[in-house]
Batch of 2 targets.
Target 1
Amino acid sequence: MICPKCSAQTRQIKDGRTAAGSQRFRCKQCGCRYTPMPKDPGYDEEIRLQALTLHLEGLSLRLIGRLLLVNHQTVANWINGYANYLPADLPPSILEMAALDGDLADILALEEE
Ligand SMILES: [Zn+2]
């Protein structure tokens, strides 16, 4: 392993895993932590959680995919992966936030296309 910050190649130790399950490392030269190979570099945990939230709101996978700019098959994979464990506290619903902004009609209009 090579530290991305100080470029040291020695004293790189394993330092647990990220929420997504990727191996994380820590440089004992400069103390920085890094993840050399993120498991799913395209999408972070937040967008997957948003997809799940929208799914729980009853939106279709295609609509979720369109809102989050993710392939709907990818969304389906995420939701299948989450099927066994639903987090206790979901973040504020995107639909609720959209309703406050007055964009809910726009979102629902999308569905009817
Ligand atoms: Zn370092």
Target 2
Amino acid sequence: MQNNRICDSFIVCKSCDALVKKCELKRYQSVACPRCGAYLCCGRIHSFEVLFSLIVTDLVLFLFSNIFPFISFHLRGREQITFLSSGALELCRQNFSELGILVLLTAIIFPLIEILGLFYIILSLRLNIRFYKTEEIFRFVNYIGEWAMMEVFMLGLVVVYVKLIKLATMKLMPSFYFFSGFIISMTMTSIFIDRDKIWEKLEKMK
Ligand SMILES: [Zn+2]
């Protein structure tokens, strides 16, 4: 998500374009636009250590989600085990390639790029070493993050699970729990991340 920042001293309101002077905020304090009342920003923990731990958690949960089986089906004595990527690959096999690629991109590829990009940026900030093209990568990560839709994918899977449970015996496998944890962890990351502070730190490292 793009932030409201335009310079170090002001915040621009996305709803009415009002310029609001920035001030130091304590944790959980927030700023609303004085003209239209829209939410502008809030005080967050500016600890890159906490953020780095969350991103490592995201990465581990994402890898485990893709390594372990997701759901097993038992129907008429036959068992089929599916993985997180199975649905997208099956769509490609059944001539729904565009849909399959879209699912693969939004549920697996884009989230992976986002986590790896954030890992790269926060590692650079933690070590206080300027890595190669950090600004460009952070800008790209912010853009690609808007296309990561794991929650929508998960919701679709839950709907399919509820529909099919009457026809077949289904069992949730470890990947389901890892992927659920991954969605929660990514939500925590998006709450903790302060893109303003990251841009400021990147500027100081120039
Ligand atoms: Zn406003």
